[in-house]
Design goal:
It contains 9 helices and 3 strands. It has 323 residues and is mainly alpha-helical. The chain has 3 domains: 126 residues, Four Helix Bundle (Hemerythrin (Met), subunit A) (Up-down Bundle); 149 residues, no CATH class; 31 residues, no CATH class. The chain has a 3-stranded antiparallel sheet with strand order 1-2-3, with helices on one face. β2 and β3 form a beta hairpin. α6 packs antiparallel against α7 and α6 packs antiparallel against α9. The longest helix is centred in the C-terminal third of the chain and has 42 residues. The protein is flat, with a radius of gyration of 22 Å.
Length: 323
């Protein structure tokens, strides 16, 4: 069997399906009454996930070790993680927004892995001594899944900031369950006058059983904010477990639990950013846009930790560097 041909075909299919699925999800938001688009987007994501799963398994069988030994394989695994988390969250929350924000980043990752990385970097190579350990599967896979989860949660926070642009959003209730919100907007006729609207659960127009436009936006922001908080709350423990597992592996491989390697340093910075986000949400010391801004910063920090450090080619994790 020509493993290389099979893998390239599956990756190309994944790229094409990501492009089609992106159009489906965005069309589903533009035309919400076309319900078949929701099903088509979900089916497309499942097929993409299966293609990437088969690709990773075939590399595992071909090379005899878990396919996370280089940057190309980790990018494929990250995309698989993004689509896997996406499928679980969409099945539970039935929100098209998850696909709308996740599919573009997945498409970018596959495009970068397939078209930007040299062919030599896409080929599997013998493991360096530090990677010849059972910790490879546990540490790296957990870290990648935590990255995928935190990326989706952070993307929703960025979406929250985009939709709420020009408005002052303040959470007036608990971070758990239904989140009452307060919206403050500038009056177009008098900039000094403010309109304050507080939503307790669902607000309706007196002459209609449907939410008004302003209330609908508040409910949308409430849903996005709550979903982002819960997803980041899932990704943070995974990140913590991954860092601890990496420290144990580092002690086994290099004789030290922590060496302030660039990768380790940025992993700690990532942990602190999202710890601060969750602390601010749990204690309600920050509300509204401030936690979303912090999560958006976390999105950039995750990419610096995962990919940016690889461009340096320095440190104990330099086996995955980009030339």
């Amino acid at each position: 069997m020509n493993w290389n041909s099979l893998q390239n075909t599956l990756v190309n299919i994944s790229f094409a399906l990501l492009l089609v699925t992106l159009l489906i999800y965005w069309s589903g938001i533009a035309f919400p009454k076309i319900y078949i688009l929701n099903t088509a987007g979900k089916v497309g994501t499942i097929i993409i996930n299966l293609c990437l799963c088969i690709t990773l398994i075939s590399r595992w069988i071909e090379n005899g070790y878990f396919p996370l030994s280089n940057l190309y394989e980790s990018l494929l695994f990250l995309t698989w993680g993004l689509t896997f988390i996406h499928i679980i969250l969409e099945n539970k929350n039935r929100s098209k927004l998850i696909g709308a924000v996740n599919i573009p980043i997945s498409l970018f990752i596959i495009a970068f892995a397939s078209f930007s990385l040299p062919v030599e970097m896409q080929k599997a190579a013998p493991l360096v001594p530090a990677l010849r350990s059972n910790w490879l599967m546990m540490h790296v896979s957990i870290m990648m899944i935590s990255y995928a989860t935190l990326i989706i949660g952070s993307l929703l926070s960025i979406l929250f900031l985009i939709i709420s642009q020009g408005q002052n959003i303040e959470l007036t209730g608990s971070s758990f369950g239904s989140l009452p919100m307060k919206l403050t907007t500038e009056n177009s006729s008098d900039s000094s006058q403010k309109i304050n609207i507080e939503i307790k659960s669902k607000s309706f127009n007196q002459n209609s059983n449907k939410p008004t436009g302003r209330y609908s936006r508040l409910n949308l922001l409430q849903s996005i904010d709550n979903l982002s908080y819960r997803i980041i709350g899932l990704g943070f423990p995974l990140l913590t477990i991954g860092i601890i597992a990496g420290a144990v592996w580092a002690n086994e491989a290099w004789g030290s639990y922590w060496s302030w390697d660039p990768k380790e340093t940025w992993a700690l910075i990532t942990w602190l950013i999202f710890a601060a986000y969750l602390h601010s949400r749990f204690t309600k010391s920050w509300q509204g846009k401030k936690p979303a801004i912090l999560a958006s910063i976390g999105f950039l920090v995750v990419w610096i930790c995962y990919l940016g450090v690889n461009f340096l080619g320095k440190g104990l994790h330099s086996y995955g560097w980009v030339s």
